[in-house]
Amino acid sequence: MAVQFETAVRMLAYLRANSPVELQTVAEVFNLKPAQVRRYCELLNEARIGEFYGENADVEIQDDEDGVWIETRDSLGLDKQIRFTPDESIAIIGGLKYLEAMPYLVEQKTVSELLLKLQATFATTESIIEIGTTEVDQNIVTILKSAIAGHTCVEITYGAAIDQKVSQRTIEPVALQANEGVVYVRAFCQSSEAMRTFRVDRILQALAINEPGISQDTVNADFAISSPSIETRLRMLPEMLESFAPETVSGVTGVGNLIEATVKVTNGGWLTSLVLASAGDIEVLSPQELRNQVLEKANKWLSS
Amino acid sequence: MAVDNTMRQLNLLLVLMNSQRPLTRSEIFNRVSGYAPFDSDKELDAAGRKFERDKTDLRQYLVFNEVSPSGDSQSTYSIDLEQSFFAEVDLNEDELILVSLATGAWRDAHLGQSAAAGAIIAGPEYRGGSNIFTAIGRDERYLKPLEQAIVQKLIIEFEYYSRSSNENKVRKVEPWRLVLHQEHWYLFGFDYERESELLFRLSRISADVKITKEKILNPSPQDSDPIEMIRSFQRTEEQVQTAKVRVPVADCANLRLLAKSFEESQSGDILTIEYDDAFSLSREIALVCDRVEVLEPDSLKERITKLIGQVLAVHQ
Lengths: 304, 316
Fold this sequence. Notes:
A: SH3 type barrels; 5-stranded antiparallel sheet; elongated; B: SH3 type barrels; 4 domains
């Protein structure tokens, strides 16, 4: 294992500030395995301020019945964090800018004050990352947040992106997620009797129902969607790849200014709609059935 | 026993931190474990090379003061403690949850790793401290080089696909900011070809970004709003227009979400949609073109027919 200077210095200051601290906690904070944390502690315990002075940092690992604890009594003055690197500052400030762009999710005033505080601490005056987010109905978000907090139900009118059909559902929201600026609600859907993820900007209406939820699911339920099963071969402009989840794309090859790729989708109707809206930027090469569907729908428009 | 590089660098830091005055190289060699032995010129050279490497490595994180006096006197070294370390940040519980949310959001490998440092501030106990989850920067291959070029204020070159000319061209750009809008990443910078500020969609960059050694000449303009620039590009109409479309009951959700109002009729619902971006609206209508009827205006209908014609052209 390569022991990094930056991690060692950060860890010594962290240990000093939090002593005694559980080894497992340190492993989580520094994204290391417990054995790696032990290695760092051994190294830090040997660190000294001079060959002839002999003082060492005093870092001790104690195994007892409550777990494995690290106690630090002397860090030789190294009890402040080294400044974050430009990359680290940018990532942290950028993440907060992301939150700041979604005032309906988090308290904007708190985020703004925190940004000022951290920018002063990091000596960073500006963010190189700017974020615009999808507009959502703040009243709907308020209803969802309230239902999450109170474990109650919400009746929604929802427009599914996959087929544009509108349905009425009673859901038990458990969490909100902001993914690339788009807000989703994870909820137990009583209509389908399963956990589902809904785009908040596709909820046409929401009505709070003061009924307790019946689902036993928790927020730990992941946000995975069902596995795509239809394999298609597409020719398109490279930028159209953004329309598909990266994990569904394979076999990308260049053809002049265009690319060809194998893309797995869950719903053929969704793909044909996307192709129709692409103004010729996506061509279905296979299967022929999907290609025919594109032609059929396009001709229907032209003959109307 | 050989002292590994990290231990030597750690010792160097501790020696410099705890010294009352700047130290010369030979004083450092004598005090810091890991440079000895240097009984011969060859060993002294090796120690010197280690010291140079350590300075380079440590300068990524610390501010070194290196004073080189004139004459025969040796250079001295010290660490600027104020510039190298930050004071403890006093954050309340709400702020710690926000830091945890912000730093846990990154899905980009490079920025995700960098953001992990934020956990030192927030600590693991605030992870999952709310019913909100965040994600950003998923698998965007150009974020890392662009971010590095922006930080280092260096000009970049890359091949970029132009829709208007349907060709890839090399662009020379002074990079300023990264912008995420409507699930797309953009680079905002000064374009040498157009000699003006410009936005580049990252998905149209067709080859690796080359970071040159040339420094940027134009500073990032603080009064420019790239997100508003993107929005203004999308406006096709000078004034807000009104469209009326007929859709089946409980269908065409994408158009219902855009509708200002709707009225029921025997053959479906008639939606009234206000728009200033005919390009986007025509694409939304094309998504459901097999079951929507555009009642007005004709200009929108013609635009959709042209769009569908382009689809037919590549499929027939």
